[in-house]
Design goal:
seven-stranded mixed β-sheet, elongated, four-stranded antiparallel β-sheet, mainly beta, 11 strands
């Protein structure tokens, strides 16, 4: 069984920063691609950033230059550093991990979500 635990959300003022973490645990052989998504009230879930097993990153235009995705393979953890936050960044943020279990089964797992609120 594989679990994802997200943390780091909260209430911040515009211009401030937050760092989200997504830690995977369980019967994991390797983690491949990882993505951070967000869903604002009344809107569809959208991709914010993703990172491949080789470290290639991709960002939504709305967060380029402000957000940075990174991974620590030794800790099976992925981070999303969010700087210069704006009110429109307010959403529930989810990580999605594509991994290989110890039984060589490829699965995609969603985190439980963490709320980020940007407001003055």
């Amino acid at each position: 069984q594989v679990q994802l635990v997200e943390s780091g959300g909260g209430l911040v003022q515009p211009g401030e920063s937050l760092r989200l973490s997504c830690a995977a645990s369980g019967y994991i052989f390797s983690i491949n691609a990882v993505g951070w998504y967000r869903q604002a009230p009344g809107k569809q879930r959208e991709l914010v950033a993703n990172i491949t097993s080789g470290g290639t990153t991709n960002y939504a235009d709305s967060v380029k230059g402000r957000f940075t995705i990174s991974r620590d393979n030794a800790k099976n953890t992925v981070y999303l550093q969010m700087n210069s936050l704006k009110p429109e960044d307010t959403a529930v943020y989810y990580c999605n991990v594509e991994l290989l279990t110890v039984t060589m089964v490829s699965v995609k797992v969603w985190g439980q979500g963490t709320l980020v609120t940007v407001s003055s």
